[in-house]
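Let us practice reading a record.
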Amino acid sequence: MKSNQITLTFSSIPENVSIARLLIASVGGQLDLPLNDIEELKVAISEAVSNAIIHGYQSNPQHIVYLNLDIAVDNLTITVKDEGCGISDVAQAMQPAFSTDSERMGLGFVFMQSFMDELQVDSELEVGTTVTMIKHLKPTPISSH
């Protein structure tokens, strides 16, 4: 399979989390990933997009979330970016059960870390946050003719 790039920008409203889930499920299907892997990708992307909306933009619908998928032969890279308030302490934010919102479980980064092969979070206060998640793809055996 050749490499593929998909970029999507959308309003920071909760309804768009399901669009991100549908997109990653579609891409996972095209890559012939096992259903379990697709489910994990859906959870990881949901958490990243939800974080951008809820924490990055404080649920203000007037902002834009940037989603980029880079599908290469051996890696699927998902990048979710916001231009929101940023994270003051990324290491603390990535701790299990830490959340700035008492209504939330604080497991978003935990899910992203456990379901993806690599996770990088870059954040700057009042500039925004970029979450980069990488899933290593196993080469599909080519049937001999």
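A brief commentary: The chain has one domain: 4-136.
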